[in-house]
Amino acid sequence: MTTNTEIPTHSRLVQSIEDFFRCAEHIAHFAIKRPLGYFHHYIVIGWNDVKKKIIEYYVCFSNMIKGQGEVVERNISTTEVEEAIRSKSLFVIEAPDYPQSESEKKKALSRFWERFGEKAYSLAYNNCEHLVSYILTGNPFSEQIKKAGPLGKLFVDSFDNCISHGKRNMLKISGCLLAAVPVSFFCKAAVTTVVNEVGNSISRYSSSLPEQAVDCATKNVCRNASKQLGCKSSQILKIKRCTNVARKASKTALKKSAATTFLITGAVEGAFAAYEIYKLRKQRKRNHINKIDFKREVTKRVSGAAGATVGSVGAGLVGQAICPIPVVGFAVGSALGNYVGRLAASTLSGQIVDGLN
Question: Cα-flanking dihedrals φ and ψ of residue 122, to 5°?
């Protein structure tokens, strides 16, 4: 899958089904224009029966809806090909560096089997066009990704974050849920502090006093303390001494929550980033990803992990402060911050790398 509406370089329209089979006599690169304007690329490397005209190998990534692409082979019918020809959406790409001799074609077939069954799809650096280019030339390249421009690259990186790497990113959010466990103890400790220090003095103050102006976090601590004391939260909020104790306790809880979230989420994000960079290095060693894309993706992994960690801490604290149930607010805010922080940091760093190149 690629994301540019220009026709591929060295391509021409397939004129007829005979033209299609003539091109696909041994090994051929085809691109079909989809309704959304992008080109899907695939290779035909033979067929079972020339008379029946049944294509044997259709090499592409599939299963993207499930969040994981896989290199597969499938049969395609002449009806499918003829329909694409009639709509003038099927192109054959005949680049000068594609296999010409029998030995070159054997090497291309060898690269096909090397990649067969692979589950490492990425729209940014390992899509259908990258795959086909690698099989035919030994060098992964996507012309339309290269020409996508800043907005196109932004879409590509967002797609990878949400779809291609969606399941993995959901696992990363588990760090936020792990951090919510100690945060619940910090919140309870803050409430207990208020109950122990000011509980006995509430009845001595006049109910006619005005409520003290406090922040959301302090108000939540007072509200939860009132439930344990069996009084109204307004009674606590009217007493300056009580609100001072609650304010101090809530700040302590927030500081401990921030430190714990940073450590736990940072460790989880760092571990995932290290593992992903290790896999990228393996792909680079096999030349399944080109040098420029490798550097770009490594930068995105590092910045994405940092952005996710910072986002988890910041949004988690906001949720903890404003939600009536602090732990729930923290968990929701932290998870949202983790996702948005990763998306923003990784896409921004990708744009910066593109600008430098």
Answer: -150, 125
C-beta of residue 226 within 8 angstroms of C-beta of residue 236:
yes
Identify the bridge partners of residue 49 per DSSP, sorted by sequence position. Answer: 54
Spatial CB neighbours of 195, under 8 Å, sequence gap ≥ 6: 225, 228, 229
Instruction: Name the pTM for this structure.
Output: 0.84
CA distance 118 to 217: 50
- What are the tens digits of pLDDT across the range 317-337? 999 888 888 889 999 999 999
Alpha carbon distances (Å) from 162 to 44, 85, 165: 31, 33, 6
Compute the distance between CA of residue 280 and CA of residue 276 in angstroms, rounded to an integer: 6
Question: Residue 165 contacts by C-beta under 8 Å, 6 or more apart in sequence?
Answer: 67, 122
Q: Identify the pLDDT of residue 294.
A: 97
Per-residue pLDDT of 226-241, as tens digits, reads: 888 878 888 778 778 8
CA-closest candidate to residue 143, choices 89, 71, 93: 93
User: How far is Cα 134 from Cα 111, in angstroms, rounded to an integer?
Assistant: 8
Judge whether 261 and 282 are in contact, CB under 8 Å: no
